[in-house]
Task: inverse folding
C-alpha cells in the first residue's frame, strides 16, 4: 500500500473480530516500531505485548472501562524508559525524550498495522498506576489494541489546514 494511502485509510476502530493476528504480521509491526527515530538513537522505550484475556480485561478496566480494548487479539503497551534517556540527556531526557520516543514508536506501529490492513485505536485515557502495575512497573504512554475490524471505522473530519498551520511571524 502506498504511504499516503495508508494515511488516508488509517482510522480508529473500536470493534475487533475474533480473528487472530499472525506472528509475521506482529513482527512486521514491531520491526516498524523499532525503526522509529529516537532521541540520540537511544530508543528509550519498552513495548509490552499482551495476548491473554486476563491482562486484556485488566487493561480495559485500567482504561476507565473502555471494554473494546479487551476485544483486540493483541495489545501493545508502549512505555517510556526514563533511565535510558536520562543517562544521556538528564532531566529533559527523563521527562520528555523518553515519552517522545515511545510515542513515535507507537505511531510507526499504528501505521504499519494500517499498511497490513489491520485495525487499531490509540488509547491514552487510562490510570497510569494501574497500567504500570499490569506491565511490570514501566511508565505507560499509550495502549494500542490491534486486530481485524469487526465493522468499518467511523470516519471523522479533520481540521482545515488554515486553522492548523501558521506562518512564522518575524
Result:
Amino acid at each position: 500500500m502506498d504511504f499516503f494511502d495508508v494515511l488516508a485509510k488509517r482510522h480508529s476502530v473500536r470493534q475487533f473480530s475474533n480473528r487472530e493476528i499472525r506472528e509475521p504480521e506482529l513482527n512486521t509491526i514491531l520491526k516498524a516500531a523499532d525503526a522509529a527515530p529516537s532521541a540520540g538513537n537511544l530508543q528509550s522505550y519498552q513495548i509490552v505485548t499482551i495476548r491473554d484475556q486476563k491482562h486484556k480485561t485488566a487493561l480495559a478496566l485500567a482504561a476507565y472501562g473502555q471494554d473494546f480494548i479487551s476485544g483486540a487479539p493483541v495489545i501493545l503497551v508502549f512505555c517510556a524508559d526514563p533511565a535510558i534517556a536520562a543517562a544521556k540527556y538528564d532531566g529533559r531526557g527523563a521527562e520528555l525524550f523518553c515519552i517522545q520516543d515511545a510515542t513515535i514508536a507507537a505511531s510507526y506501529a499504528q501505521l504499519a498495522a494500517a499498511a497490513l490492513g489491520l485495525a487499531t485505536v490509540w488509547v491514552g485515557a487510562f490510570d497510569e498506576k494501574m497500567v504500570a502495575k499490569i506491565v511490570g512497573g514501566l511508565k505507560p504512554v499509550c495502549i494500542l489494541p490491534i486486530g481485524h475490524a469487526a465493522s468499518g471505522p467511523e470516519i471523522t473530519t479533520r481540521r482545515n489546514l488554515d486553522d492548523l498551520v501558521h506562518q512564522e511571524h518575524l
User: Anything to note?
Assistant: Residues 63 and 86 are 28 Å apart (CA to CA).
